[in-house]
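Re: weekly structure request thread

Next one in the queue (444 aa):
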Amino acid sequence: MFEGLAGRLQEAFARLRQKGKLSEADVDDALREVRRALLAADVHFTVVRDFVQRVRERAVGQEVMKSLTPAQQVVKIVHDELTALMGGQQAGLNLSGRKPAVLLLVGLQGAGKTTTAAKLANWLRKQGRRPLLAAADVYRPAAVRQLQVLGEQLGVPVFSMGDRSDPVDIAKAAVEHAAGAGCDVVLVDTAGRLHVDEELMAELERIKEAVQPSEILLVVDAMTGQVAVEVAEAFHRRLHLTGAIFTKLDGDTKGGAALSIRAVTGCPVKFAGVGEKTDALEPFHPDRMASRILGMGDVLTLIEKAQEAVDAEKAKQLERHLREGEFTLEDFLEQLRQVRKLGPLDQLLGMIPGMGRWKGVQNLQVDERQLSRVEAIILSMTPEERRNPDIIDGSRRRRIAAGSGTRVEEVGRLLKQFREMKKMVKQFSGMAKKFGRRKGFRPF
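Done, posted below.
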């Protein structure tokens, strides 16, 4: 996500930090790199021009040039302007007013509207809402069935009238059904269309008129680059969009569309799809995204992910085991599962301040299959072997390798790594206890 842009901007500012006092020429050199980085990231050229001009006006002021850390001041200005460019504050959903609130999802063919509708319903359910999915895409084969399958997986009801009904009638009937079924939000999944398709765009206008949605959300494939901005402009002219949701943002190393769409259309980005799973949808926070781009991390999102994924009781149990020096392979397996719930490891490391500038993280490619093999190896052990790996001899290793579909060498490597980890945990536990006795508090 924003990998190319982030790398180039961080390199430009690293060179700036090496200087003591800054001259206007130094600032201009850095901003030249910023301009190139933004254009290379598919940011709209008018947005780049205005952005660089605003940054320069602030960066060459007396307050910055004469400060003790002018380079840091320039980086802060860029961070502030990036945040403003993406909308400033996080734009939440408007669910006030009449019940049920109606969210109309629109967009091009293949943008991921159906999957996004399910992800958004899942997110709303976690917020305590009672969503209803309305299958109003009657043109794409199996679109209705796809939404029904996703609804069943999430435990979210789906309203449909088959694929031969009029989408306007489906949307109206879904709202009426939701009112009677106690659902407070209706998500209308519409068919994908080209923004130049007059007949289908008129159909969306009729749906809007019929259900009076609280939100009209454009679902945009981040991989389409500047085309996404043109699409947003076209849909906005016809429907007066209230926001955008970017899909596949985790697969777009440029990210220019996400930076441009707010400035060009005035529509805030409200959510970002960051993976294929139904929980891989994040509220879009402009300030946090600016921090990620500039390598400052995103601790708040990391904390929120941890609060959602980590089981409090299991965390207490691990704390007790660590305190008593009884860390086992069962504990290791549980921690592995908890971490995998948080998301891809390279994304998580990028949220830690300073880690984004470390070359090791930038080049890190985590093989999820390797983590699955580790899990398979541990699950192929007996409970006794997980609690006491020292009893695992050659024959046991061969049995575990056969049971997990791995090689004996991989089993041996895991056991070696675990022994080293356990030794480190013991040392840390001893140091913490010693420190705690001195300071008069518990180590954990």
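The longest strand covers residues 101-107. Strands lie at 101-107, 131-136, 158-159, 185-190, 215-221, 243-247, 269-273, 281-283.
Next request, please.
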